[in-house]
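2 proteins. here.
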Amino acid sequence: MRHIAITIITSTYNSAETLPRLTGAFRKAKIEGIEWIVVDGASQDNTVNLLARASDVVDAFISEPDGGIYEAWNKGVRMAKGEYIAFIGSDDTVSERCFSEMVSALDGEHNVIAFRTAVVSNGQVVKELNTAPWQKPWNYPVNMGFSHPGTLHKSSLFSQGGFDASYKIAGDKEFLLRNASLLKPKIHVTTDPVLSFYLGGVSSDVRNILVSYNEILRMLARAKPKTIVFYIEMVRLRLMSILRRTGLLTGSH
């Protein structure tokens, strides 16, 4: 039986425009021990046909209605055979060395491993994330100290439950916060980014910022870290700034 070190899970919905870029990147990067599962939410465009034609890199896919990205991810987790699981967006892409770097980062000690990530907007890299070794932030766990896209999770972290599908944008943050006491993170630092995260997805769409902040406040209301009051104030000030910039709020208070 083929040993699966890492399962990559991608959720899709009407992703025909960006999916060829990702499947093309997988063809260059995929190595032995990597499994790719795609969970489609009953797309109405050409997504399913593209997935069917990508069977050389897509190990399994399903297409059926779902309640959003976190329900799709949970379906993928239940299908996964890998020792570690990562989530990569259908509008993102990977470098040719992405999966070899992921495999080389596995050490049996850390159950969460993040990787250098380029943030791309309008075809240009606007910043890079996870560029230095992980250090525990003073306000951990509300600040995890790493960016989540492409992060490996030990599959055992999902044994007590997956993502809360009632969240639409911040379910990954809620999952990490809920499991904070179990996490042993590290950042695998590389010379160049192994993943490119394209702004414009669900979590980075400006139209969803208010929903995201509302979900963050909701999850923090369940947690009791000492930094929660300060963090909520940071969220409030950031939210006020966004509202003013978008013209939804006027005045100085």
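next one coming up
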Amino acid sequence: MTRFSKRCVLVAAVAENGVIGNGPDIPWKIAGEQAEFKALTLGHILLMGRTTFESIGRPLPGRTTIVLTRDPAWSHEGVLTAASVEDALAMADDLPGDLMVAGGAQVYAAAMPYATAQVISRVRLSPEGDVHYPAYDEGEWTVTATESHEFYERVFLTRAHLATDVSD
């Protein structure tokens, strides 16, 4: 596997039933969770799929956005595009900050082999949804920190053979 100079961190809010979305929507609103996402990703590079980007509708301030798309004609002002996770990782090498993967499910799955860390907000709900966080081998990951919040628990995981603690 190709090595990259950046950390690749998967950042997701995941319900108890594995749901991360229902179509293009997040099936919950939890006070403070989006502020935590902003604090974690500010100053870094956000990688997301086109559908996730279009559900947000704009690049998020204070972050470089790379949109993963199979459509070479797709573009949006203020964002970079990549045809693969490997292309995005190569682009990230020349940009400030770490690569923070923000969804959707196909992007998480494609980035999982390169991930050095995961930050999972484990939401205490089991909503209806058709988009799920990909399965991963829990034996490859070590919990380095947890934070309890009213409606979710944030868990910081590092991959043992690639570990750089993201909770610092």
